[in-house]
Amino acid sequence: MTHPADLTRRTLLVAGGAGTALALAACAPGGDGASTGAGTDQGTATPTEVAVLSDVPVGGAIAVMFDGAQIIVSQPTAGEVVAFSAICTHQGCIVVPEKKGLNCPCHQSLFDTATGAVLQGPATDPLPEVTVTLDGDKVLAG
Ligand code: FES
User: Fold this and answer.
1) In a 3-state reduction of DSSP, which class is residue 15?
2) Pocket of ligand 1 (CB under 6 A)
3) From the alpha carbon of 88, which atom of ligand 1 is closest?
4) 129-130 and 82-85: which strand pairing?
5) Is the pLDDT of residue 23 over 60?
6) For residue range 95-117, what is the model confidence (pLDDT) as tens digits?
7) Is the pLDDT of residue 22 over 80?
8) Ligand 1, residues 72, 89, 93: which to mutate, most atoms within 8 A of Cβ?
9) How remote is the CA of residue 110 from the centroid of ligand 1, in Å?
10) pTM of the model
11) Share of the chain above pLDDT 90, in %
12) Is the separation of the CB atoms in 114 and 17 below 8 Å?
C-alpha cells in the first residue's frame, strides 16, 4: 500500500544519497587544498577497522567499505593481508572477488587477488594498493 508520493520521496532520497556520495568524493583529501589545518592530518589518522581476518578466505578476498569507497581485502596466505581499491582501472566499475580473481563485470578485466595485477584486459594498470595492517584478527586500513 505504498502511496505514489511516498515512492517519489524515496526515489528522491536515494538520488540524494548518490549525490551526497559524489559530493563527498569530490571533497576527498588532495582536492582543492582548502584545508585550514595545513599538514596537521598527515600521518596522524587513526587506522580504521575494515574487516575481521577470519572473514577473509585464505587465497581469496572480500569487498568492504573504507573511507566511503569499496576496497578489496585479500588474504593470499594464512595471516597475510593486502588490500586494493575496488575501482577498475579501465573505466571505473567496481570489481568483484571471484574464484578466478577480481573480476570487473563491465568489460571482464581480471585482476590478481593477491597482487592486484592485471590478469586479463582491457584494463592495463593494476588496482591501486590500500595500506592495511593487522591488529590481532582486526584488519585496519589507513
Ligand atoms: S571498467 Fe573494468 S573492464 Fe572496463
Assistant:
1) helix
2) 88, 90-93, 104, 106-107, 109, 122-123
3) 2
4) antiparallel
5) no
6) 999 999 999 999 999 999 999 99
7) no
8) 93
9) 9
10) 0.69
11) 67
12) no
How do the residues of the chain divide into helix, strand and coil, expressed in percent and rounded to 5?
20, 35, 50
Q: What is the pLDDT of residue 83?
A: 98
- Domains assigned to the chain: 48-141 (2.102.10.10)
Q: How much distance in Å is there from the Cα of 6 to the middle of ligand 1?
A: 36
For 58-67, the pLDDT digits (tens) are 999 999 999 9
Residue of 96, 103, 109, 110 best suited for mutating to test ligand 1, as the one with most atoms within 8 Å of CB: 109
Q: Ligand 1 mean position to 109 CA, how many Å?
A: 6
Cα(first)–Cα(last) distance of the chain, in Å? 45
Strands (DSSP E) along the chain, which ranges?
A: 48-52, 60-66, 69-75, 82-85, 96-98, 101-103, 110-111, 118-120, 129-130, 132-135, 138-141
